[in-house]
Amino acid sequence: MGKPLNIIVCGSLVPDPLQTLEPVTTPQGPGLKNEQMLPSVLDPWAACALYEAAALAKARAGSKVTLVSVGPKAKLQQLMMTVAQKAPFQLVAVNAPAGGFTDAMETAAALAKAIKSTPGLDISTALLFGGCASASRDAGVTLQFVAEMLGISEMFNAVDSIKLEEDDSFTVLERVEGGQYLSSTCKGLPAAIGWATGSLPEPPNNPQTGMMNMRGIMPALMKAPAVDIGTGGISYVSVEVPAARRDTVVKKDMSVDAIAAEIVEWMKG
């Protein structure tokens, strides 16, 4: 039996992908139409990271999972009513914008600062989890920025599996081209793991777990520091949904080669 684990999961809310997302220009910069009214979900890749963290923590007695989230406080509270029922964790919240136009470096700085201020957390023996991508700000670098700011040099991305030994050495499988995996072994912690979809299904809702989590979530939300996260040095002239183009031509008695040649000519035009 290995020693207890400290697993930090970076994950925030994103608009429900089943909703219509229309970018607009606001006085504060680019955003989404009726963004405050859109229902939110936990970012899918971050959710996989949370479930994998909970499974690892369950296998090591005394282990702790900390979810660090950046987002508007009111929307985080709504989201946690559902997420809290999925797995045991402690919440560290940062009250800040969380959208597709926020700067990855500023977001990472807010996350790193929140993690460093967590009482009793030893970064030198921690696992830093997060999604390999994001359904909102898919810069693909946020987790690596956080790891660097925390002094974690071992980074593995697009991971689907981790096998942790009792001496804290571990082996991960990272996705590479051609549907294959790169197997990497690390002698010990700390390390940062950017999860793909992992191997675990979404846990069922557990009201008892939810009630236990909410005892710590509500105070964490109440004391969440406010941070102003902008778009960095990027200036957006305008934002809009790409225009759809459809050219329909009805023809009969054409060969397959002729159809293919006409499609190629249309694409060239």
Keywords:
269 residues, alpha/beta, Rossmann fold, eight-stranded mixed beta sheet, 6 helices, 25% strand, globular
Verbal overview:
This protein is an alpha/beta fold and 269 residues long. It has one domain (6-222): HUPs (Rossmann fold, 3-Layer(aba) Sandwich). 29% of the residues lie in helices and 25% in strands. The chain has six helices and twelve strands. The protein has helices at residues 44-59, 73-83, 104-116, 142-149, 207-222, 256-268, and strands at 6-10, 13-15, 23-26, 29-32, 40-42, 64-71, 90-95, 126-131, 155-164, 170-176, 180-186, 191-195. The strands form three sheets. Strands 7-6-1-8-12-9-10-11 form an eight-stranded mixed β-sheet, with helices on both faces. The protein has a two-stranded antiparallel ribbon with strand order 2-5. Strands 3-4 form a two-stranded antiparallel ribbon. Strand 9 (155-164) and strand 10 form a beta hairpin. It is globular, with a radius of gyration of 22 Å. The mean pLDDT is 90.
Radius of gyration: 22 Å
Tell me, what's the shape? globular
- Summarize model confidence as the mean pLDDT: 90
Helix content: 25-40%
Beta strands, count: 12
Going by CATH, what is the homologous superfamily?
Answer: HUPs
Structural class: alpha/beta
Number of helices: 6
